[in-house]
């Protein structure tokens, strides 16, 4: 279980395409107020008042190789890291997951398979891919964190971006 950088590599040139996604503004707080004040009586949603269009610049026809690691927390108790590593590996080899992985947003789900060794990328050179979502900080008001993605010879080194202070 090495602490290796998370990496992505693509066999073909990266292509971008714009997409419009429909959605609704965050209504959780409004629903909680309604529930506390009046119960569920009169609870309704006028979709025309709360609809939002979200613009996305997505990458097309990409194949990612993702290298990852995990860190044990205090909740693990006496568990050993090898136990969790082996569980993850066994499930990934069978294509099992609790939630389907998504690349950025839920609409972009990812199929995956376990590979023992990552293939080398055929891509050469540098390409600035702009700001990408890194994580959502749920402990601080669901604040999104982004990083400046740069692909070098087919690899986006997310761990290096984080270590270099590129995550905001």
Q: Work out the radius of gyration.
A: 20 Å
Number of strands: 4
Oligomeric state of this protein: single chain
**Secondary-structure element sequence?**
EHHEHEEH
Q: Biggest sheet: strands, sense, closure?
A: 2 strands, antiparallel
Cα end-to-end separation: 28 Å
Quickly give the structural class.
alpha+beta
How would you concisely characterize the structure shown here?
This protein is an alpha+beta fold and 168 residues long. It is built from four helices and four strands.
Task: Describe what this molecule looks like in 3D.
This protein is α+β, with helices and mostly antiparallel strands and 168 residues long. It has a domain at 15-68 and 102-163. The protein is 20% helix and 25% strand. The protein is built from 4 helices and 4 strands, in the order E-H-H-E-H-E-E-H. The chain has a two-stranded antiparallel sheet. A two-stranded antiparallel ribbon has the order 3-4. A hairpin with a 5-residue loop joins strand 3 and strand 4. The longest helix has 13 residues, at 81-93. It is globular, with a radius of gyration of 20 Å. The two termini are 28 Å apart. The model is unreliable at 1-11 (pLDDT under 50).
